[in-house]
# Entry
Amino acid sequence: MNCPVCSKPANFTIDLDQYPVTEIYKKFGENKKTLAYMDQSFEYCHSCSHALLGRHLPRDFIYNNYNTVSSSSSGSVLALVNFLQFVQDRANFGNADVVDIGANDTSLLSEISKCGDKPRSLTGIDPNIKSDSSEIEIISCYFEDLEKSFSDNKNNIFLCSHTLEHIYCVDTFFEKLDEVSNNEDLFFFQFPSLEYLVIDGRFDQVHHQHINYFSLYSFSILLARHGFKIVDYQYDRSHYGTLITQIGKKGGKKSFVKHDLITEEYIHSRYKLFKDNMTLSNELLNKLDGNFYCYGASLMLPIINYYLPNLIECIAIIDSNSKKHNLCYINFDKEIIGEQELQFSENNLIVTALSTKEATRKILIKLIERKALNVILPLNII
# Structure
């Protein structure tokens, strides 16, 4: 497969045969027929330090089954707080038209509406958008299909939080962004960084929904091709090793050196370490002989099970979100139940809500405070 950033062949691949589809639940005991697994690959282009998925699930299939809600995830809430602070340090919302691309439940726009400097307007764009606010104009579509333009407005601020990694054709996305904006507008993006996915060995964060895995270098190359450039950036390692950027028009690529560690050899070594660590956890689960619970019905739990096949021997999955109770995953047939059904001090628990460092740390503190008999953490970096 050719790289979508530089068009050169991706020259390193991790095969992920029968990789689980995430985010799809069913009632426990229900016979629901839907796609649950698909052969996948994680490919790397050394020429521009970019990674990508080798195969794509149909876009409409993913978003017809999309269950991520920003306000219901502590990790997502923290990511938005940190992103908003980055934006506020560099922009003034006063008398601006603020456009959120991939607005989800409009949590970010709702926070901006509370800021002292009142925006002129707030617009959210998302195929699954939901909002109860009369102050926010909602546009239910993929950004690439947007018919509205903001190019005649002065003082636009475009925001895009954890959306770019989901985009099937990044060239079409930036062509549309260029079309609907003007040269004086401000643009802020955040998305998972390839650098910290590899450095932290978080290959459990690779899934069918994230099409592209940008490094700072590959992102700058993509931007230059469409007349944008990176103005400023920082990393937020609390949530998916996020890269937060301010970009602008007028000018080409701002030069960035590729991360010396991101090579095929380094990716291979970090992936091997990740799998070795998972193997040790899997052996520990085997010795527990089914005498344990999963803690946390994370949307990505089926991927943890991919690396920990003995996870399926658990008694049940514990989760504090009552909306998930009496459900199970389409590819992990164990019931999700409430905390009230568990005596922590008498039971072994394995943490399965691992998507973000901050959320995992809070869970660990909680289980320690409740004096869980044993707590298993199948990661070596949190």
Observations:
- The chain is about 25% helix and 25% strand.
- The first helix runs from residue 59 to 64.
